[in-house]
Amino acid sequence: MVAADTHYDALVIGAGFGGIYMLKRLLDQHLRVKVVDAATDVGGTWYWNTYPGAMSDTESYIYRYSWDKEDLLSYEWKEHYIKQPQALAYLHHVVDRHDLRKYMQFNTELLSAQYNEERNVWIVQTSTNETFTCHYLVTALGLLSKQNWPDIKGIKDFKGEMYHTGKWPRSYDFKGKKVGIIGNGSTGVQVITQLGKENQVEKLVSFQRHPQYSVPSGDGPVSEEYREKINRNYDEIWEQVRNSAVAFGFEESDVPCMSVTPEERRKKFQEAWDLGNGFRFMFWTFNDLTVDPAANEEACEFIRSKIRETVKDQEKARKLQPTEYYARRPLCDAGYYEQFNKENFEVVSLKDEPIEAITEKGIRTSKQEYELDVLIFATGFDAVDGNYTRLAIRGRDGESLKDHWSETGPVSYLGVSVNNFPNLMMITGPNGPFTNIPPTLETHVEFISDTIARAEKNNPRNDGTVVKGAVIESTADAEKGWTQICDELSANSLFRKSPSWIFGANIPGKKYSSLFFFGGLKDYRRRLKEVIDGGYVGFKPF
After folding, report:
1. Burial code of 289-298, b = ≥16 C-beta within 10 A, e = fewer?
2. Does the pTM of the predicted model rise above 0.85?
3. Which domain does 187 fall in, by range?
4. What is the mean pLDDT of each run of 10 residues along the chain (542 residues)?
5. Mind telling me which residue stretches traverse the membrane in this protein (predicted)?
């Protein structure tokens, strides 16, 4: 027997974009559901990532839920790109609109979860000294949430202010201060741009090991005519998004880069540059930038030429020009390179002068010491599986996820299920699609909730106090097969030849492996349909 007041049909971990929708779907299926989150309120990524300049690189009209048509037509968005305060406000709005908050418990961190095979329940321990049991444990932990602090000598010696962008203070004042930033991926680019626009720092020093290719975002106010056009076409927009590769709301190109003249190539790149958006520049221009080195170099040189045009100090421009493949997460910005035209903005190439240590006063490289008042780590996250391996999640026979993944790297079936972990369902788990997050989350949530609905129909349980019911679990062969599919799809990609968090390369000692399905959202959804139509191929009978 289990206590009715602490037992749930489903316990959802995380109150961000995925967790909110998961709760809504399962409540609509008349299940007893609870959401727990370590934060003080809803938001997930948008609760924690409050650093200056935090912005989605998805246009506002599709950075929202597709399932509430009335809300799509009426909810306000004034700019092409949604910023952190607006994203958080939107999620609050959805929770309040559908009266979901009463099913949520905050300031509650998952510490451990143990599957009990005899009772077919998950036993969950939390930071509030509570014990919950649930039939289905659904994780909505997010792809990018476990902060990555670099292992730099002397990091604890620094006497100034020190922050990680993944856990930013609720207020800050850098007026008249010397600020150093380590890391220049999407977050670093946004922070640097915003601090430059605030124009308050005495000096900003960007420490860069891998300069990034970034293109304009194309952000700006939305006209009434534009909004009306979007509203008229929402059904077609979402149909296109779900049946595209990267799901960013534009048609991907089917034209090889080298099949057109140099003049035509530059014209297309310029058009994408003017329209804005990193994913558009990479996938809308030509269809082979991520697989053909020659095509990729054409895009690289175009962006490098823009850096040289934009940054007046050619030594700064040299340091800001990438030399590697254009094959990391595509970036866009609202004036990043322009900030380095300011005399008080410096760039330090860590290839020219590596960091030797962090000191009490700042950062010492092989050439000099940079005195700083503030040190910002925009060093990203232990992506995808980091939030799972830090937790004691144990399946059959006490096996932990960390142990399950120790030899192979993080693996799953469909990015949703792990063999030997019954009734554990993951939203954007390892080897899920490398696509726009909101439609990907919706795809996962809908597959998970439909799977649970089937399990509930075929395996009726009692009133919730006596736990029986279905066991949803992928097979070892299915997990192995999906891992192989993901590996094969990424084998010819230039992404795989570029050291980045997408393959775990940003974490010292982490096994280099494919963390995503590179087949695109359309193909991923097709494969899910085949799984369902085949009677849940790859899962043990339930």
Report:
1. bbebeebbeb
2. yes
3. 147-213+328-380
4. 75 97 98 96 93 94 96 96 96 98 97 93 96 96 66 91 89 95 92 96 96 96 97 98 96 98 98 97 97 98 98 97 93 97 97 95 96 92 56 90 86 96 95 94 98 91 61 96 92 81 55 79 98 97 92
5. none
